[in-house]
Every structure is written in C-alpha cells, then in structure tokens.
Amino acid sequence: MLNFTIRRLNLLFFTLLMLSIVSFSLSYFFPGDALVNLSGEINADQQRTEQLVELYNMDKSVFHQYTAYIGQIFSGNFGISMSSQVPISDELHTFLPATIELCLAALFIALIFGVPLGFIAAIFHNKPLDKIILTFAMVGYSIPVFWFALILILLFSITLSWFPSSGQLNLLFEIEQVTGFKFIDILLSDSEYQAQALKDAFMHIVLPAIAVATAPMTIFIRLARTSMLDVLESNYIKAAKAKGLSQAHIIYHHGIRNSLVGIVRLIGLHFANLVTVAMIAEVIFNWQGAGSWLIESIFARDYTAIQGGLIALASFTFFINILADFLYAALNPLERHKKHGA
Amino acid sequence: MNLLDIKNLSIELTSHGENILAVDRVSLALKDGEIRGLVGESGSGKSILAQAIIGVLDDKWHVTADRFHWQGVDLLRLPLEERKQIITKDVAMIFQEPMSCLDPTNSIGEQIEEALDGSKFSGYFWQKAQQRKEAAAKLLHKVGIKQHDTCAKSYPHQLTNALCQRVMIAIALAKQPKLLIADEPTASMEATNQAQIFKLLESLNKLKNMSILLISHELEKISHWTDYLTVMYSGQFVEAGTTEQIFNTPFHPYTKALIASTPRASTNLIKKSLLHTLPGSIPSLQHLPIGCRLGPRCPNAQKKCVIAPQVESFQGHQVSCHFSHRKEY
Q1: Residue A338 with chain B: CB contacts under 8 Å
Q2: Size of interface A-B (CB pairs under 8 A)
Q3: Do A258 and B105 count as a contact with CB atoms less than 8 A apart?
Q4: Given CB atoms, is A257 within the 8 Å cutoff of chain B?
Q5: Taking CB atoms and an 8 Å limit, are A337 and B158 in contact across chains?
Q6: Which of A17, A213, B71, B245 has the most CB atoms in a 10 Å sphere around its CB?
Q7: Where in chain B is the domain with CATH 3.40.50.300?
Q8: Which residue in B97, B114, B155 is closest to A245 by CB distance?
C-alpha cells in the first residue's frame, strides 16, 4: 500500500510539474510582453516594472524565471487580472468553489444513477429493460449540453416553474462568503433563514447539475454494464452459483464489487470531460463559477487569468483522478497486497 | 439405488441461429460412495456435461434428458428452483483453474463462510459469526491447510494454484455433499501437488462415503483412483464399466486406441518408432460427422456407422458401437 501511495504521489508531482511548465511557457507563447502576461499589470510604471522584473527574475535565464514563477504560485500570487486588475487568487477564491460544488454534485448524480442503471442493464442482459436503458444511454450521450440545458430551463423553470433558471442563491438571502462553497457558507452563517437558504441553494443546483451529469452518466451506464457483464461471465460467478448461492447474493457480494473495480479508475478519466461540460453549463445557467469566468477571460484576452484558471482547474481534475485511484486500491486487493506464489 | 441416474442427456448450443448438439444422448449412473472417472479428449463435452448436472450453464445451452434422477427423485418433474435447491444442497463441484474460480476481491475466509449452511448456527449474530469462523477453520484443516488464520485472511492471488484448489475443495465440503464433481482438479499442477489432491479426494471418499465424479482427459492418471470409468468422445457416449473392464477388455475401438496410445514402461518401443494413435483429430462442433462421431477416424468403421449405435450392456460393461471388440476377448 505504501508503495502504491508513493507511486500515485509521484505521478501527481510530475503531472503538476508538467502543468506548471506548460502554464509558464504560455506567458511566452501569448502575444505581448512575457512579464505583462505573467503579472497581468498592464499599466505598471517604470518603478513597478523594475520591481516585477526583480520578482519574476526576468533579467536572468528562463530556468530562473521558472523557479521564480513557481515560488510566486506557491506563495499564492497568480498575478492580477488584465481586465479587472483584481488579483487572480481572489477571483479563483470567489469562482472556483462554485465550480467544484457544481462538478461534485454532477459527479454524484452521474454515479448514483449511472452505475446502478448499468448494473441493472447487465443483469437483465438482452431483455427489454436492458434495451431501454441502452437506448436512454445512447440518447443522453448524443444530446449536446447547451441544448439540453435550455430545454431543462424551458420545461422546469419556465413552464412548470419548479426550479429557478439561473444563479446559485436567491439574492434575498444575505450569506457572507467565507469558503465560497455556497452550502458550507450557508451552514456557517448565523442567518435566521438558514433552512430556507439551504433549500433555495439546493433548488438552484438541481437543474445545472442534471444538465452536466447527463453525458457522464450515460458513459457510466455503459461502463458499468460492460464491466458487470464481464464479471457475470467469469468463472468465480459460475463457482458461486455451484455453491448454491442465490442470484441476489451473487450480484451483491461478488458482482458489484468486482465490477466497481473496473469502473472506479475510469471515473477519474471521465471527470475531465465533466469539468468541460460544466464550463458550458455555467454560462447558460449564469452560474458564477470558474468555468464561465474562464470563458469570459478568454474573450477578454486576459492571459493571466487564463494561466491561473488553467492551473486551478487542471489541479482539481488531477486531484480527483488520484482520489479515484486510491478508491480503486481500496476496492482491489490485488493492488494492496503483494503477490505470493505462482 | 443409484445416487445419480441420467439417461440420454443432450445439450444443445444455440449460436447464430444454428443448433449444435454439443452432448449427444449421454447416459451416466453413479452409485453411493463410488469414484467414477469421466474420460475424454478436450472438447468431448465432459465439462459441459458436469456443468449441466450442477446447473450452472447459461441461457445459450439447452439441456434435455430422458431421465434425470437424483436419489430416486425425478428432477425433470420438479420446477427449476426446486431442482436447483436439491442439486446444490447435495452436489458440489470443483473446477479447473481454481484461481479463477475464487472471487479476487473477497478473502478466502469470506468465500468459505458464505458456502456454509446458515441454519446450522444458533445464537446471536456475533455468536453465529464466531461459529462460522470456526467452521471455516475446520474445513481448512480437513483439506490439509494448517495455518487457517493466515489462509482465511489472504486473497486468492496470494495463494498458489494447489492451495486454491484445496480451498475450492474446502468450499465444496462446506455443504457436506453426497456427490463431488471434480472437473480436471489437477490441471496445470505439479505432479506432487496432483497426487496430494487425488489422495485428499480419495480419503474424503473413504471417510465420508462421498461419491466423486472425476473428470479428466488423462485416462492413465485417474484410473489409479477410480472404481468405474465412463469414456466420452466428441459429445457422445463411448463406453462405461469398471476400471478393470475398461483397461483389460476395452470393447470400443476408441477406448482401445486410447489405452494403446499411452506409452508404458513395460512395453518395448523401438527407438524413434511412432506411438500408437488414431489418425486425425477430434472434430470441431461446426463440422460434426453424422451417426457415430468417431466414424472418420475409426479403424472398424463401416457403412452402418452413419447411424448412431445403441448402447449395449454386457454385465455392467456398456458400449456404444456397431463393431465392438467384445467377441475378441
């Protein structure tokens, strides 16, 4: 297990290293002065420019510049936004938690519905239920998120008015921003309308989370179905049947765990996809998250913000990936224990 | 009374709209406490037959039989669920490749414990859990594993193939079965391990009066342990009788060739001479000959062989051949 942990952390370290190199090189690849791209200070005077050159080691070699850049990032300085002149770290602190909240909610929905549906499809292999679930998965996978999001708004907020169409929380609730995670902030606040605020935040997250979750969910359905089918064909399921165990017992004790082993690792892989979908959905649902913020920055050619957003979102995705790997190891004894004998 | 009595059991495989008769009217009878060997080349339908008996074949396979009696109970008349209950209660099976037959994500202990009969334990759930653990340890002792704690805690990939097979036997013993079907239990194992597994099976047979259906493609190897033998070829019944009958007076040309093909230390073979074999190889399921399936390879084959022969019995020695060697002895 220690070996496994070290290997994963090693992977995390090197991916982050590569990421930081890419991010740093962007300041040279983007048009304009590298120093301005790094710091984002477009209106710096002579004195300030000298300070920045000192800070970012711009008068030394590229390697020194890179180490200075890394040093700045670790001290929390991502530069300032070119368009708004606000520190990127502040903007990230405002917007990133909202994205994480949305992504985690969507991942939760996708897993909670996708994986069991896939298992059910596999258990009823080649029966009508299997076909229905597969059709649903195919349709869900083919629908583009921007259209689906609009349909959801049209149906559930305009026609039925069950859920609000945009934003994260009704402006009536005065919730002080502490962590940026709306749900945690509401729980931390001492507002007398805490329960209502919580309910309101929940109502706001439902539609965007569903819109984001649909595509990954259909992928999970198919992954879970294939994985379960493979497991059900295996010899140990046959042996378990010969033991006289009931079908439910076999699925519950042998099927689910073994097929989860096959899926969990891929969850991390498909999470990157989910984050991209979330960025589009954020724009449509006017969700004040890092995705819509990043898209705006791209339109505004705010290179500093693009760099900062890249690092933040990519690190988040890596982190989820590594987490999925640990979950995989927890489920799979083959990873945890040394192999003895033949 | 026979423990298991099967007559004309056929197994059909439906694939791509085609029906293939994988096992063609095979009969098998087992008495209480006997060890019967089921011998045939790879692909002769032995494993399929065993899996059909225990009922773990999936929907692709269709099993039909004229008679399927278990301890005098006609299983064909019973609904599927009841049949399964009776069979899994009294019949256990161990498979080839034991490592792949154990769930890789469950510990050995868990897998043995779940095979135990829950109604035998009493008390509160923690007491039951304790009893289960003890019963599992006892089972491991029975199959010759002394370090039951270490073994119960480990996962299948941490054990050797031979140990996994012992665990499989322990699981099979959990229900105290009357019949144990051993499907090539020693495939891909070292000779010493093979002998140990066979000895273990023999002792179980002697001490517990447990019948064993021993499936193998190595006639010579299992004949030492068996009382009776049934020979199959390409899904068809060939010959059955006591081990002595089969070895000393083989009636069927296939059995004769099978025995002759085994080199013996006593026979004087000339250097570089060819070993005795039948020409050709076992037909694939897509291209089965009509009638007796041995036909194209059989030295005795004549025109009549395109009609499958009936099984004839001579003092318990059954053979299915138009031109058997019976009169030569």
Answers
A1: 158
A2: 86
A3: yes
A4: yes
A5: yes
A6: A213
A7: 32-54+82-226
A8: B114
Mapped onto helix, strand or coil, the DSSP state of residue A3 is helix
Fold observed for domain B32-54+82-226 = Rossmann fold (3.40.50)
A244: which chain B residues are within 8 Å (Cβ-Cβ)? 84-85, 88-89, 115, 175
- Gap from A261 CA to chain B (nearest CA, Å): 9
Instruction: Give CA–CA dist B314/B317, Å, rounded.
Output: 5
CB contact under 8 A, A253 and B114: yes
d(CA A194, CA A175): 9
**Chain A residues close to B103, C-beta within 8 Å:** 236, 240, 253-254, 258
- Cα diameter, chain A: 83
Say which residues have a Cβ less than 8 Å from residue A265's Cβ, sequence separation at least 6. Answer: A324, A325, A328
The shortest C-alpha distance from B36 to chain A (Å) reads: 20
Instruction: Name the residue among B58, B55, B96 with its Cα closest to residue B76.
Output: B55
Q: What digits encode the pLDDT tens for the residues A155-204?
A: 998 998 898 888 887 777 777 777 878 888 888 887 778 888 888 888 88
Q: Is the ipTM of this complex over 0.85?
A: no
Domains of chain A plus CATH, in order, are 2-74 (no CATH), 89-336 (1.10.3720.10)
User: What is the DSSP code string of B191-202?
Assistant: HHHHHHHHHHHH
pLDDT single digits (tens) A286-305: 888 888 888 888 898 888 88
**Are B88 and A234 an interchain contact pair (Cβ–Cβ within 8 Å)?**
no
The Cα–Cα gap between B144 and B147 comes to 9
